[in-house]
Specification:
16% of the residues lie in helices and 38% in strands. The chain is α+β, with helices and mostly antiparallel strands. The strands form three sheets. Strands 11, 12, 13, 14, 15, 16, 17, 18, 19 and 20 form a ten-stranded antiparallel sheet that branches. It has a five-stranded antiparallel sheet with strand order 1-2-3-4-5, with helices on one face.
Length: 367
């Protein structure tokens, strides 16, 4: 067989595959044959500075094989086959173990969780799980605490990242909330309370993650610009211009445009009973009037259009046409575990709750 030599190339700023092939003096025909593979080989369109490409070349110094680590798990391998090339993606085996973490809130969720060694991704997942019941922007108190059981992923004995939270407990102002991850037969996973109720409510409590409430729902508020009493029928969130605004529930965009002092506005109708309004946007998301939108999807970005003294979101919620306080309104939960699955759910989740309890007791013993 032909002698093969491997060479390594580190991607530089402004590089693409064509420039790299030219620099390494490989033929345009070889480049064309690799690009026309499409499919898996399209990963080569996403190469970034600092990443590594490995090339095998024959005695004529022509490329006969190429390897590219897409991420820490997947590697794209392109090899000669007959007159052309074939592409395959190999995956390193990932070992998954369970890990636990606990923290007490003294400063903020992010600070205290980071001090406990929890990744940003896992902190956000924790906030998303309990975000329907706990107001993470205003409602945390010193002494609140949480315990997590989550997946930890390893390759070749090295930890590469955290997986999903499997079970969690959060104590907020003396109230205890517990959540367990459970997947149905289709593999779709959601979080449920130990008795099988969905953690997900029909509405998110806040349309912006971790934003500060700058003005509360108040029917006797003095308007900061007009300087006269005008009912404040919503909640204002102070946030920097360009912060994404999430739809708090599934629904249909019924208005997208300018509304006087509200500036750029989007209104979403959620079934017969509920509607939500988002004002003072700097720009809209991609959802136009008449579009269906899912809970959590971005409908616009924070700004200060209209009568606004600084960048913020003004958010309103109406129930049966009447303005309600979004921070205290009671929302129905999403569908619970099917009665036929409840026994299986409890059987499968009992060991997770037991591990969570052990982690909690261990942490208490250490304090």
């Amino acid at each position: 067989s032909e002698e093969t030599a491997w060479k390594q190339y580190t991607v530089k700023s402004g590089d693409n595959l064509a420039k790299i092939f030219k620099r390494l003096e490989y033929s345009p025909t070889t480049l064309h044959n690799i690009i026309k593979l499409g499919g898996k080989a399209n990963a080569l369109k996403n190469i970034k500075p600092g990443q590594t490409l490995r090339f095998a070349q024959n005695s004529n110094a022509e490329c006969i094989s190429l390897e590219y680590d897409i991420d820490r798990i997947k590697t794209l391998k392109i090899k000669t086959s007959g007159n052309g090339f074939t592409a395959l993606i190999s995956e390193k085996p990932v070992e998954i173990s369970h890990a636990t973490a606990s923290a007490e809130i003294q400063n903020s969720l992010f600070y205290d969780a980071k001090q406990a060694g929890i990744s940003d991704k896992t902190i956000m997942e924790l906030a998303n799980i309990f975000g329907w019941d706990i107001d993470f922007s205003q409602g945390l108190r010193q002494g609140d605490s949480f315990t997590l059981l989550y997946e930890s992923k390893f390759i070749d004995g090295k930890r590469i990242e955290n997986g999903h939270i499997l079970a969690a407990e959060f104590i907020n102002r003396g109230d205890k909330y517990q959540a367990i991850r459970f997947a149905d037969k289709n593999g779709d996973a959601e979080y449920f309370s130990p008795d099988g109720k969905s953690m997900r409510k029909t509405f998110l409590r806040n349309p912006i993650d971790f934003a500060r409430v700058s003005s509360h729902f108040n029917l006797r508020r003095k308007h900061p610009v007009l300087n006269r009493i005008r009912a404040h029928k919503g909640v204002d969130y102070a946030a920097s211009t360009g912060t994404p605004i999430k739809s708090t529930g599934d629904g249909k965009v019924i208005f997208r445009g300018v509304k006087g002092g509200y500036g750029r506005v989007v209104i979403v109708q959620h079934g017969q009973k509920y509607s939500s309004l988002y004002a003072h946007m700097s720009k809209y998301g991609r959802y136009k009037k008449g579009s269906r939108i899912k809970q959590g999807q971005t409908l616009g970005y924070v700004g200060m259009s209209g009568l606004a003294t600084g960048p913020h979101l003004h958010y309103e919620l109406r129930i049966n046409g009447v303005h309600r306080n979004p921070l205290t309104a009671k929302f129905p939960a999403a569908k619970p575990i099917d009665k036929n699955l409840l026994a299986k759910f409890k059987q499968r989740t009992a060991p997770l709750l037991a591990q969570l309890e052990i982690a909690k007791q261990t942490q208490l013993a250490l304090n």
